[in-house]
Amino acid sequence: MKTLILGDKSRSLKYRPDLPICKDMECVYGPLDDAETSLALGADADFIIADAIAKVPKALIDGMPNLKLIHSEGVAYNGIDLVAAAERGIPVCNCKGMNAKAVAEQAVLLMLALLRTLIPGDEAVRQAKQIEMKQRRMVEGIDELGDVTVGIIGLGDIGQATAKLLDAFGTHVLYYNPHRKSEQIERECHVTYLPEDELLAQSDIVSLHMPVTPETVGSIDAEFIGKMKLGSYLVNTARGELVDQEALCQALVSGYLAGAGLDTLAPEPVTADNPLLNLPPEAASKVVFSPHLGGITQAFFFRAHKLVWENIARVAAGDKPVNIVNGL
């Protein structure tokens, strides 16, 4: 049997579990976004393991006659042609929920960094202007997480984990989800449901935890931002494709938003001409970036790779895998 891995070889080897299926498997490594090269390497492969930002188009799927399973290494799977896979009866699976705690920690980190002006503060100290920054911030006022309202958009695994962490700070947490969660989940997460427009109007920080779908791409646009509270913050640990980046830039430049904490931009890899990387200095100081590392802790990768290879073993044995996302 053979597996085509669209991702980093060293990472694949580091986190590969000690399972019998791994010992008998031939593995080849392809690029993230080059179907022609991947086909040249693995046209006869039985399985695909794809980095969460890798592209698995119809041309690649149709060019692999032995293909039995496509598995995202992470939670996201929007780069995989689900329809093409379903047409051939090939299940597509992901690692749902396994990075929830890790991403939640990153979301809270970005919230704290924004409230405490972490990046400008670091720069001030390095420039020997510590006391000036301290005095300015005392006058401006620093909010604690327990004194603000956070609105979570999307109460899936990550949204729930974020809400539970925020509860430890005493934060008032609102949420919107297309389908309201059960009373039990609301109690466990200490959250209050509101329609999206009401949540935006009341939240000091809006934290995005939605999947990327045709309906959500670009949905954080000028209209959405215009419904947010004046002087509020946007935090995105989901996917960059959700955000209309020009609209976000305009809101930061105008001062309508106080800042943004962004673990992800679009496209990835990030390009030097991204508008959020070319803000004027005053607006740029309101943004905290991290390099899409919210969910890539070691603990997550060990859990995720174990699930991936267990699913491959299931399919190799003729059984159904878990976490199928393309309706099979």
Topology:
Layout: E1 2-6, H1 9-15, H2 20-23, E2 26-30, H3 35-42, E3 47-50, H4 58-62, E4 69-72, H5 82-87, E5 92-93, H6 100-115, H7 118-126, H8 130-140, E6 149-153, H9 157-168, E7 172-176, H10 183-189, E8 191-193, H11 196-202, E9 205-208, H12 222-227, E10 233-236, H13 245-254, E11 259-262, H14 281-284, E12 287-289, H15 298-316
Parallel strand pairs: 1-2, 1-3, 3-4, 4-5, 6-7, 6-9, 7-8, 9-10, 10-11, 11-12
Helix pairs in contact: 6-9, 7-8
Can you put this structure into words, describing what you see?
By secondary structure, the chain is of the alpha/beta class. The chain contains 15 helices and 12 strands. The strands form 2 sheets. The protein has a 7-stranded parallel β-sheet with strand order 8-7-6-9-10-11-12, with helices on both faces. Strand 9, helix 12 and strand 10 (233-236) form a beta-alpha-beta unit. The mean pLDDT is 97.
